[in-house]
Amino acid sequence: MTRMSKEQKRENIMNVALQLFSINGFYATTIPDIAKKIGMSVGNFYNYFASKDVLAKELIVYIASYLGERIRMINETPISTREKVAKIVSMYFTTALEHPEMIEYFLRVYLSNREVFREECQGIVCVSSFVTEIMIFFDDGVASGELRNQDFFSAFGLFMGYLGGMVFLNGEKILPEDLTFYEASIAENIYNALKADAS
Amino acid sequence: MTRMSKEQKRENIMNVALQLFSINGFYATTIPDIAKKIGMSVGNFYNYFASKDVLAKELIVYIASYLGERIRMINETPISTREKVAKIVSMYFTTALEHPEMIEYFLRVYLSNREVFREECQGIVCVSSFVTEIMIFFDDGVASGELRNQDFFSAFGLFMGYLGGMVFLNGEKILPEDLTFYEASIAENIYNALKADAS
Amino acid sequence: MTRMSKEQKRENIMNVALQLFSINGFYATTIPDIAKKIGMSVGNFYNYFASKDVLAKELIVYIASYLGERIRMINETPISTREKVAKIVSMYFTTALEHPEMIEYFLRVYLSNREVFREECQGIVCVSSFVTEIMIFFDDGVASGELRNQDFFSAFGLFMGYLGGMVFLNGEKILPEDLTFYEASIAENIYNALKADAS
Amino acid sequence: MTRMSKEQKRENIMNVALQLFSINGFYATTIPDIAKKIGMSVGNFYNYFASKDVLAKELIVYIASYLGERIRMINETPISTREKVAKIVSMYFTTALEHPEMIEYFLRVYLSNREVFREECQGIVCVSSFVTEIMIFFDDGVASGELRNQDFFSAFGLFMGYLGGMVFLNGEKILPEDLTFYEASIAENIYNALKADAS
DNA sequence: GATGAATGAGCTTTCATTCAT
DNA sequence: AATGAATGAAAGCTCATTCAT
Fold first, then answer.
1. pTM for this one?
2. Which residue, counting CA atoms, is nearest to the C1' of nucleotide F2?
3. Tally of domains within chain D
């Protein structure tokens, strides 16, 4: 019999919920579904999370900080911006491969069911640890003269929309090739889009 | 007494449903909601659509062909690929402004509630009229030497992810400026990303 | 097959609910209990009443106007105040005998579960048609010189507390005799308590 | 470290429960609520009381004996019955002011949620120490010729219904004046109602 | 075609109570 | 005595869908 601390059990719930939410969506995943998959009673679930919404919010915060942390490490590496782009793309796709539920959750639960997150995750509150790091990446690139100085959100939309779009196409099995197959060309496209004008 | 043909009534339902779905989401919109807004009985709704899911599917087909049609017109215009990119971006944002329900539906209902569309809209089946036109745009650009020859989906993901991402950020009121403010820089970014290597 | 209009069905629900609430209390009576006793589905109950609370409120308004109407008729009869007291006591006990659920509901649901009625039945809002008639009875008695002029609520508390208390004792099967047995002495006690000083 | 005997801990629980029940009602007060307010675990609560219902029953017995004791002292005072009535009214209202939870519990928990007390508090079983003293008061008054000889319960209903009704109106903030304002007139009303015929 | 009452499964959440520690 | 995680039945309510009229 494996004993689990309360904290471990919370994590256990979060992992299972993350999977189910990312596959079936927020509304099509029920608390009984989650509880059953864990082998826990429905009632006991509520000893760990006050509500389904609260669980959803904790999940997005967790994911954003997971991704943010990884981008932070790339930002702190002394390499060119072109290389950083490649690393970020690679990290994103690696995450999508190893933890598809994270990216899927981001795309399909967080981005879509805004009414769930409206109250306490307004704007980018719950994903700030992630957005902030992208902002740092971009500012650094501009500061070093490698990137064109443009509105941040235009660059952010490119980055995240593009990467998200690819993962989505992959999830839908629309892509004829593996995600990794596209890594290089995507990094190149992004860099070309953002780079300072050659002269 | 305005008499409506069966077909007109179907369109009426679709318009109303599109609005409600795009604003409140798929699950938070009920059939009684739709029926009431039309002034029709719940029972009668089912004379026009076999189920809520079927309605959702018809809507995405409708939206895809609406967008596809507009891209087709751009494709058929004898202008440079650079100009086509600008026109497509402009068309997309114009649609987002004038018919926000279409783009919102695309982003928040179709892309998100995949469980609803799994059965009969696998892959790109329900949005093929749109995807096909993007493909034609891309092939033409490559054929004319303006675009780099790369995997189509890498280009497609860029296009749609980027545009979708921007509309999303706009919808969340995260963008400091109007969508139109970004049009030029986005078109430029996309073209830079896809264009054949300058030499 | 007996056909019932929507209004009749509402009344049917109210009757059944009144019985169950008065016997088992508000919280110990469930919507499934009510629905089952009527032979109706739980879902359909909600086509008639928006919530359990709304049902409870409609019931107290109904009861208050039932009692108010009967007191109004007594008030309009040209008899002495002493006789009016006797008639009110008699009417109250008759109601308690013939429709025990009404008085019990008043005592055990309305007076007790204030949180249920807080929102829309503040103060005497939902029982005003009843309280008003008692007020008229009292004012008339004072005006005609038969009753001592004292604070209305002191008289009201006597009247309603006393009668309610007796019905409660009866409901608890504490009284050794029938309610009617006490009618005369109670009427006398009330009249003695309220009458103008003999001199 | 304050050590508490088992008996003291029971009293502690009862005090806290009395407060919560009287304010929030029986059903809206949960065992976790009670335990938390005491700083005790839920599980441990059950070492002191076998169930929520048992606790509720012990509380009403406690309150009845508290009130009974005070009436006993009045009964044993060598004063006129008229004065005893005034003292009982005063004592009741004083209790309502100083220990509102007791009277509120009596009115809103005991009298209302009969389903809870049905099993073991049938009739007056759980409040006999209180009822008995009222009975003694009444019998003494009749014996001394001050009160009219009538059925005890008719007199009891007057006493308790009237006093309870006033406290209820006060709790609902329906009374325009303080409870104490009414003391004299209520005592007078009661005495007039019960006194032997003047001749 | 049109109506809307009716169904019933299912959802989120609560809570008295138990029990391994 | 004490803890609090765990249970599980049940509550109020919703809603896609059906069907008698």
1. 0.90
2. D44
3. 1
